[in-house]
Amino acid sequence: MPKNKTDNFLKAIKKYAKAQKNAMRGEVKQIKTERLREAEDKGKADSERLIKEKLTESRNRHTSQLAAKTREGQRRLFIERSTMVDEVFKLAADKLVYYAKSDEYAQKLIESAKTVAEVFEGRDCIIYLSERDLDRAPDVKAQFGGNVQVKADKTIKIGGVRGYCESMGIIADETLDSKLEAQRGWFVENAELSVL
Questions:
Q1: Average pLDDT of the segment spanning 9-22
Q2: Pairing mode, strands 160-165 and 170-175
């Protein structure tokens, strides 16, 4: 019987080893499944993070490009508007130069001289006229009291009178040049220029 006992013992060991082997296979399969699920979850999280980073990077790049294009468009629009304003004011200046050759302007020049003379209240002063208006100097000078010098001023391109009273420290400007330039700000604000 000893042989039977040995056989039974061996059978029991084999049965136990088989059961342990099956249990280990089950554990290995479960560990593989868990590890695979963990790897899938990590891969999914990593890919979502990478996609989110790439989307953010792409959005930032496109936003930066759009901002640069917007700035360039605004710069070009500003230049175009400035050019349009300059053209309008050049045309207005040309019309005023033509006007400065009229009899109506001669009367307006005398009125401008009276306005400057009122500011200086009969004090000594220097009156500046455009070179074209120097032939009208006697009529302009007659509007002032005190000692008056008349000088040509090359900065007066259109016409009018500019005076300087040293004792008062005042410059009175009634030139068409300065009046036209004073309208530039108003024109830009109110002209509603649009560049198509």
A1: 78
A2: antiparallel
